[in-house]
Structure formats: structure tokens, C-alpha cells
Amino acid sequence: MPEGLGNIGSSWVIVRPRRNREKILKGQLPFCHILVPVCTSRSPFSVTQEFILRLNQTKNPKEEEELLDIARKNLIKCKRKLGLRTLGIGRHVHLPTTWTEVIYLAQCKGEIQDEALNMLYASLDHAAFDYDHLPALFFVAESVLYRLCCDAFLKTYLYSVEIKLVKIGYLVFLRLFIYFLHGHLESFKQHLLRLQPYLYALSFSGGLYSKYPNIFSNVQCILKIMEIVCKRELPSESIFSCVKDKNVDSEMEGYEINHLLWHCVAAWTCVQKNSPQLNKVLEHLIFHKTQLQKKCWLDSVLALLVLGEAAKLNIACLEALMDLMRDFLLSIMSVQDQEESCKAVDFSWAWNVVYIYITILAEICLYAANSDLRKTALIGFCNCKSSQKDILPTDKSEEVPELRETSILGLLEYFSSKASDNCDEVKWTGYYGLVYNLVKMSWELQGDKEQDGLRNKIWQTLQKTKDHEKDVRICKAVNIAQAEINDPTDPFTSYSTKVSSNVGDENFSKYIGWRIANVLSKLFFPSTDACVLPLKKTLIKRDQVKYLNKKQDSMKKRVLHFTVRENSSMPEIPLFPYPDFFTKADKELARIIDHHWQEELKMRQKEDAICEAEERKDKELQEKNRFGEIMKRREEKLHKQTKPYELPPRTDVILSEKKITPQN
Questions:
Q1: How far is residue 376's CA from residue 583's CA, in Å, rounded to a whole number?
Q2: Is the pLDDT of residue 592 over 60?
Q3: Contacts of 646 (CB under 8 A, 6+ apart)
């Protein structure tokens, strides 16, 4: 155990002074595993090592309630600084500092730890990408990996906190990969080196998490991201250097983006711009569907994530998404049925793509723009009787049904009939993911009267699955989902329970796909008036601007290889068509109306100024006349011509003194 390191319940702390926090966030000091600031002041609301020790070890109920009250007040302050209700936007929001503070609070036990991790997960889900976030992201990554490798691995049981830590780590490393594509990790090699021991330990977690695909999928994504990043940024010092991967350039000239990901980003851009070229882009996208079967599955995951965001808004994109997965599953199953071909081609990673696709489909069912999209993601496009009937787990000895739809119910019927004790990993993992996500979907839809029909269908499917399925692995999916949503009740019989209205209790990632699609769209199709990714906010001298621009251009050229530009079909996909006659006429009409409105506004301002001047003159005249009347009445009563509170002339005073002196 390192010096100064101690065990607090189920977490670790190391002492560092609070004054070093800003230097740590700027990258001037190295990170520690989990920092706890030592506050020299005596503020009762500061989170220190002593405070965390007292809260975790106290047995006095009164003292515990006082400490919990202080911790709750810190959580409320952090919730405001994270901007959970404004998507991380506002003058009061400062994400890097608050992420660090929330990690401190996550070392407290009980409800404080759960609430802190929920807040951190929600913030990492919806926060925008900014270069200034990188030091704090590395700090959160190291803290999460340390707690997983040095604390969670020692437990004999799986805990809900462990699930939350893995989900947070997945979001953090997904963000780091986007920064890697922009070439922003070159100055963080020391931070990458600090992460490698934990990643090496995490690579041996297959025995712990292989029975829980919801966790193991996130762990595999973390390892795959760091394998690519470390090969690119740390060619001679990376622990992943012994692993061969054809998708990483041996000469370290850049990371190659495949065609499928590029076309998925193009489809999302067309949906956002309402471009009429969307259908052509989708045709080219389907043409490159075989790239989903390549071993570099991280690009496939990003492609599905971006296309899933487009599918939440457009039915054609949803159809393309489901067609991609249908072709992928049929090709995988056909290869696995042939033993000789299966030995030649390794598809051990395919289950990860299938599981992430099921998660994306569940998010479409919950957060799509209209009810048609949500219903299609659940039932499918097919109008045949099999898609409308109730899904029942069929007997394993019966004839295996054909894969007609890659909707949730279509996949449930397909995987439930093929699942067995000795089945392939893709089959039981897909079945596990469907049941696991259906439980969470049923919980998310509680209390929403507009979605009663959708929830009833999900509830009926889950009820029949529970009654007929005896596989222990599938039953664990229900238990894991219940633990993740922190609900001890049975979701199959719970009617009156309402969904928590607290922001930060989300079970699905609502915004990370949209954020990634937006950033990749700016990277692949940059505009002249927008920056691809906000750079670090520093004062730049005028003579450094030219050098900075050259450095950014050279960095982007060296980091990414857009091999898709060599395709002859590229000129056939204009994303921004020329405006037609009516669009030009509307713009010209708007310009004329705006011009006349500005002229009328200037005339009104002149008229208002004239009226104000006349009113001012009238008031001055009235005041002058009133003062004259006051002076006239004063002269009549007092026979004095002096103004009120005005002393008489000095000659009058002298005369009055002479008149008084002889009498004395």
C-alpha cells in the first residue's frame, strides 16, 4: 500500500492539500488515486479526510445525522455546479472542479455515495466536449480504475456501486477516445502511463464479469479504447504493444476511420440539416455493411451509436440500423454453424456489438421523437402475425424460428428459442441483454400515462419470460437490473410505484450519443465558421495565432486518415445542396422586411427623442412659473425680496447693528 494511503470502508483515500487542486486540474501536478483535500480552514461544510473517516466510522446516530446533513448540502451545491437541469450549461457551472468534488463525496458510504455516483454519471452523459475537461477526466478515470482494481475485485459479491463505477468508466473512456480522434491526447502521455497498471489488472477481469454482459461489455470497451490510444500515443512504452492489430498504423501516421462510421455520421448530419440526400447516403451506408463484421469492433460500436441517434429522429435511419444488424447476425450465425470456418474466423467479439445494439434499441424505444419510431423499435416493420402475437419462450426442441425482425420482440423470439446451456456466447448474451434492458425500460416508463400501451406490452413480455424461463443466467439479468435501479420490489408486480423525479437517477445514457455524433460531424465535415472542438481557453498573443493555426492543421492531418475520400462515390453525396428559387426568394423577402423594420425603428426613436425634449421644456417652464408665484407671495407677506433660506446683503446687517448700538 502506498505511503499515506488508507482504507475507508470500501474506498481508498490519499491526502493532498486543497491548494494543489487547481494545479492538478491544469496538469501541473501528477494525479493521485483518489484525492481528499486537507482544508486548513475550519469551515463546517468542507469535505476532508477527517470528515469522511468520521462519517464512515461513527456509530453515534446524532453525529451521523449531522455529518449526513453537511454531506447533503455539499451534494446540493455540486448538483447546481454540474448544471444537471441545464445540460451542463450556465454561468454557475464549472465541470472539472465539480467532477473532482463529487469523486471526493463518492468515498462516503451509503446514500451519499450512491447520489454522488448518480450525479457524476448524469453529468458525464450530457456534458459537452471541451479541451479543459481533459485533466479532470484523467483524474476521474484513474479514481474509478483504482477503486475497481484495488477494492471491487476483492469482494466476493457484485455490488450496485461496482456497476455504477463501470458505467462511469465507460463514459469517461468513450470521451477520451473522441479527444484522441481530435489529436488532443499528445500532451497527456504521463497520464496515460499512470492508467496502464490498472488497465493491465482490468484485463484479467473476464472471470469476474463474464457472467454479467452489462458490465463486461463496458469493460471490454474501456480496454479496446486504451489499446488503440496507447498504441498510437505510447508506441514504445505501451503494455498493449505485444497485441497485434491491423487497424492501427505501424508507422504511427494516424488512426484510420472506416467507411461505415463515416457514412453513419453523414446520415446523422443529413437528418440534422434536413438534407434531401439522406436516401443516397443510406444506400451507400448499406453498401458498406460488411465492415460491421471486421475485428476492429470499436468503430462498429461508434457507427451504431451515431446511427442510433439518427434513428431517434428518422424512420429511414431506423430501418437502415435494423437491416445492418439483421445482416450481421445472419452472417455470424451462418459462420458459427460451420465448424471449419468458425476456426478460421474469430468472432469472439461479436457478442459485444450485439449487446450494444440492443442497448441502443432500448434507448430508441424510450427517447425517440414520436410514437411510431418507439413502436417500430419494439415490434418491428413486419405486419405479419408473428410480430403482433405475444412472445413466448418456445421449446428448445422445436423448430428454430427465422430471424425476420431485429426489433426487441423479434430478437427476443429468436434468441430465446436458440438459447441453451451450451449455446454460443452471442445467443445467450443477446437474450440476457434483452431481458436486462426490458426490466429497466419497464421501470423508466412507470408513471408516464402517455406510454401505457408500450409499457403494458413490455410488462406482458417480461411476465411470460419470468414464468417460462428457467435459465439461471437470464434470471440473474432481472436481479442485476433491479439492483441497478435501486429498487428492491419486483418489477413484474409493482403497479403503484412511481419513478423518482430526481435528476441524476437515469439508467440509460440519453445524451452521450448525441454529443459524440455532433462532435464527429464537425470533425468529418468541418465548416469554415465553427471550431471542431473547443480548445483550451488561454490568452494567445497576436504573433502566436499564425503558429497555432499551422500546428492545429498539421495535427489534424497527422491524426486521422479519411480513406473514404478515395471512394469514387464521394462526390455523389452532397450534404449541403444549393438553395432553390423559393429559398432564395424567402431570404430576400426576409432581408427587405428587416431593412424596412430598421428604418421604421430609427424614425420611432427620433420621434420619441423629440417628444422627450418637448416634455422636458414644459416641465422647466412650469417649474419656473411656480417659483415666481412663490416669490410673489413671499414679498407680499414678509416684505422681503430675498429667496427662502437666503441671507440678506452685508450692508443691511451693518445698518441694523448701528441702530442697535446707541440704544445700548
A1: 34
A2: yes
A3: none
